[in-house]
Amino acid sequence: MSLICLMLFFTIVSLSAGIGFKTTIEAGLKKATAFDASIILTNKDKGYNIEDILNQINFKISKNEKSVAYNEYVTGIKASDFLTTGDMDFKNVNVVFVKISDYNEILKFKNQKELNLNKDEILILSVSNKLINPINEKIKNNNKININGKEYLIKNPKAIEENLQTQNMANNRITIIINDEFLSGYKISTSVLNVNYLDKNREEYNKKYAKISELFLKGEYKSLNIDYIVGMTKDAVYSKSKGFTTILLFIVIYLGIVFLITSMAILALQQLSEASDSIERYKALRRLGANKRMIDKTIFVQTLIYFSLPVILAVIHSVVGIKVTSDFMNNLAKIDIRSSALVTALVFTVIYAGYFYTTYVGYKNIVKSNL
């Protein structure tokens, strides 16, 4: 019974977590791939602009693509300078700054309304679940922060959940949109060109951007004195993720269903074997005056107890397991695992009820045929 309980626990948690994890990855990919393609340039010391580098390597944007460029700046300010977070990995995260003019170009590129900022106003962006809550708490309690000795008002009522480039994952931990004058004395740390395709020749465009990464890895751009340059496409990110999630989901669902059916089959066989061994006891009950209805009720209660005990304990353990799994996945993306848990509960209940009813009928027929 203990082994069956463990198998049922694994079934419930794996099915719930497997379906939930797939949903989490898909939600994260949607945030991470805001554009059809992105070229990301990280500078060493020179503060190059992405457009200048692309001109040097003779990379052209075709007339069937539209693009927008923006620059990121790191000023030495950390997230812990104005946020309270218990996660040590995020205390020393560099705050990335982006000019309001660049951000407005991105908004215009996405056909969204442009924003105006006063000299003492900022916007905060983040897609990190470990930082979104501290940011929102900060805005709620005190919507002003001190940057380099000057107080700025956070204009947005809560963190803007937006990734400004296409990447393998949503990597915007914390970005501050600020007036251009503030960043006039800083060098560009990262420069990005975002691209959307205007026709259906996606495969051709994808190869073009993938080639940038290939040439960099081969050392073709050593003379440029850049840290790295990479071309990312939405289709490539989805393709890599799809293979991984499909394999993972297949393994989890396969093992979960196998464990569930195995557990139910063992319980059924155990009870049917018990029926054959207990024939003399039921004959004794019949001689004592028990009628068919009373014997059927006894069989029903006994079968129900045997099927329910490991399930009840497994469900109690699974509540804790699903809670821990849900907390872990929420660090990646805000996902409500209850929907996948309900699907698991439905599948579990159907198979459980089928095996229970079949076992009860089989047990009853064995006893009936021998009385």
What does this structure look like?
This protein is an alpha+beta fold. About 55% of the residues lie in helices and about 15% in strands. The chain contains ten helices and nine strands. The chain has helices spanning about 1-30, 50-55, 90, 100-110, 130-140, 200-215, 235-275, 280-285, 290-330, 340-370, and strands at about 35-45, 65-80, 95-100, 120-125, 145, 150-155, 175-180, 190-195, 225-235. The protein has a nine-stranded mixed sheet with strand order 5-6-4-7-3-2-8-1-9. Strand 5 (about 145) and strand 6 form a beta hairpin. Helix 1 packs antiparallel against helix 10 (about 340-370), helix 7 packs parallel to helix 10 and helix 9 (about 290-330) packs antiparallel against helix 10. The longest helix has about 45 residues, at about 235-275. The two termini are about 30 Å apart. The model has no long low-confidence stretch (mean pLDDT about 85).
The main pleated sheet reads as:
9 strands, mixed
Radius of gyration: 30 Å
Please state the overall shape, judged from the principal axes of the Cα atoms: elongated
SSE order, as H and E?
Answer: HEHEHEHEHEEEEHEHHHH
Labels describing this entry:
371 residues, alpha+beta, nine-stranded mixed sheet, elongated
Topology:
Blueprint: H1 2-32, E1 37-43, H2 50-56, E2 65-78, H3 88-91, E3 94-99, H4 100-109, E4 121-125, H5 129-141, E5 144-147, E6 150-154, E7 175-178, E8 190-197, H6 202-217, E9 226-233, H7 234-277, H8 279-287, H9 292-330, H10 338-370
Parallel strand pairs: 3-7, 4-6
Antiparallel strand pairs: 1-8, 1-9, 2-3, 2-8, 4-7, 5-6
Helix pairs in contact: 1-7, 1-9, 1-10, 7-10, 9-10
